[in-house]
Amino acid sequence: MAMTLLEKIIAAHSKSKMVKSGEIAEIEIDTRAARDFGGASVVGHLRNHGLGLDNPSKTLFTFDCNPTGSDQSYAANQHACRLFAREHGIRVFDIDAGIGTHILIDEGYAGPGSTAVSTDSHANILGAVGAFGQGMGDVDIAASWHRGKIWFRVPPSVKMTLTGEFPAGISAKDVILNLLGMFGASSLLGYSVEVFGNAAEKLSVDARITISSMATEMGAIIILFPPSGEIIDYCSVRSKKQFTPLYADHDASYEKSVDIDVTLFQTMVSRPGEPHNTINIAEASGLKIDSAFIGSCTNGRIEDMRKAASVLEGKKVAPGVVLKIVPATDRIWKECLKEGLIEIFKQSGALVSNAGCAGCAAGQVGQNGPGEVTISTGNRNFTGKQGRGSVYLASPEVAAASAIAGFITTPDKIPAQPSVFTKPDHKTIEHQKSPETKIRPDKPAVIEGRVWLVRRDNVDTDMIYHNRHLAITGQKEMGQYAFGNLRGMEEFSKEALPGDIIIAGKNFGSGSSRQQAVDCFISLGISAIVAESFGAIYERNAINAALLVITCKSLDELELDNGDRIKINLKTGEISNLRNLKTAAAEPFSEVQLGIYFNGGLLG
Fold first, then answer.
1. pLDDT of residue 435
2. Taking the alpha carbons of 29, 31, 36, 40 in that order, is the dihedral positive or negative?
3. How far is the C-alpha of 428 from the C-alpha of 96, rounded, in Å?
């Protein structure tokens, strides 16, 4: 029985000499990878079930989602993976290496006819070199690490033939965006797509990677290119093992066959929200942008960098527009440096980051904020995927040209002068004389509340409110993280009640100047903090936010226990323990501090 290319690869890695669509085969996996996203869970499954490794030499970690380790959860996951790797002799492509799927190709772990799995949903990018690659969940990957094999249902195959010559200016990204526009996100759902034709044969390694990387967005299992001589040479040079290129039989049976005339392809962009919602760039031309991103597993290759540099050379990014560029791997980053591309990027005003997935994986670079309009070379623009703004997908050339122009455009239509942001037409704010401070009825001069004892000195702002939560801007959300990084006080935010009073030692609130370390207590309704002394910036922040901070150097005189109730006279400074009637003298509030407090804060 004749077989398709994917069927050939599966059969070569299974006990069967032949397989067909719909059958379930157990496949030997040549390379088994886990990223910093999902890697720690894979380790957890193996440890929890007491499972060993089939072959450590075929097992890899690739840290690409957050290679800066700027997110605490990623940093913790990465370290857990490193510890496991040291224990079992596993290769780690650490935070300096780049995107795992590209590493598999460029470091010789994947080549024509091979198989690989990863916790990356875009592992099917390996179809670019005629290999079987699949993204799988943590349980699947853990099983493959333990057994070296995994079960897989052989998908039906589609034969796609690209005829004609690509029009001038059509990039690989345009090719896949045109295909997405034709097939949408579901008409090829669950299919393996094998690409043939004269136009396909001429595509470079980097161009094939761009196209294969978006099979996931088309709903396809994989987009496979029969390996050309260039591909075989490319992989052979990098190979750590011998590859056997495989090809579909000439009489292989395909469920569908489609011929596509590429002479009709156009320069495209994807509208925000859906990669398959593609339009001719003319329909989006002139749309003002706030930022541009060039990178991701789809367009972070050296060809992409060269194309972006050819557009940016000698030009500047438009005023107010942010351009972020992230090469896919460190190898590509060094090529950019050697060829002078980094200098071109920097001279244009771009931010260039270390290699990695970047904005596509909510990683180190490339995220946008609410209301921000971004043109991106990524593979996905789902709401929230690359931030909270709107993301248009396009080629590196279009992204670079748009960054220079300040609006979506093509390289041949960059204006002599960039578009600039205009000042919003807001009504002029009338300057008013500050009203006299008046005592507000909800601001008593004598307060009473339940005591929380924090029996230590030098409680810093990271203990009060950890820096991993600094992106939160809504005060109401901050309370849940109060004291979340202070040992012994982890349950404080759940048990604290409005009106409670914190009693602390010396130098409370030392460290950084973060206002959140004050606002988190306001969020919970904490009425006051009494300490022997305060960090200078923290004290100012609290006073200006109308959170009562009271300095008392004789707290021991109160003989306090957790849960006691105390009464504080802000004007006289007297503090009373209502359980044992012990008293202590605190520093009375100054006229300035009282005024700010009664005004509800420095800004009122």
1. 47
2. positive
3. 50
Q: How far is CA 81 from CA 39, 74, 146, in A?
A: 6, 11, 16
What is the architecture of the domain spanning 268-413?
A: 2-Layer Sandwich (3.30)
- Residue 240 has a pLDDT of 73
407 in helix, strand or coil? Answer: strand
SS3 state at 580: coil
Q: What is the pLDDT of residue 404?
A: 98
The continuous run of DSSP H or E covering 279 comes out as strand 278-280
Let me know the angle formed at the C-alpha of 31 by 25 and 35, rounded to the nearest 5 degrees.
Answer: 110
The side-by-side arrangement of strands in the sheet containing 132-135 is 91-93, 59-62, 31-35, 115-118, 132-135
Range 354-358 average pLDDT: 89
- pLDDT, mean of residues 380-396: 87
Contact 399, 293 (CB under 8 A): yes
Question: Domain coordinates of the chain in residue numbers?
Answer: 5-263, 268-413, 446-598
* pLDDT grade for 1, boundaries at 50, 70 and 90: confident
Any idea what the Cα angle at residue 396 is, between residues 393 and 402, rounded to 5°? 75
The span from the CA of 122 to the CA of 297, in Å, is 8
> In the prediction, which pLDDT does 363 show?
63
Grade residue 383 by pLDDT with cuts at 50, 70 and 90: confident
What is the homologous superfamily of the domain 446-598 according to CATH?
Aconitase, domain 4 (3.20.19.10)
Average pLDDT of 208-232? 95
- Rounded Cα–Cα distance for residues 464 and 502 (Å): 12
SS3 144: helix
Tokens for 21? 């669509």
Q: For 437, which DSSP code? A: P
Residue 325 has pLDDT above 60, yes or no: yes
Q: Decide if 270 contacts 392 (C-beta within 8 A).
A: yes
pLDDT band at 76 (very low <50, low <70, confident <90, very high): confident
The whole-number average pLDDT for the span 495-513 is 94
Which residue matches tokens 């609130």?
A: 509
Q: Which helix (H) or strand (E) holds 228?
A: none
Residue 390 tokens, joined: 């709107």
CATH H-level superfamily of 5-263: Aconitase, domain 3 (3.30.499.10)
Same fold, 5-263 and 268-413: yes
Q: Which residue has the tokens 């950019």?
A: 336
Q: What is the mean pLDDT of the chain?
A: 92
Average pLDDT over residues 335-362: 92
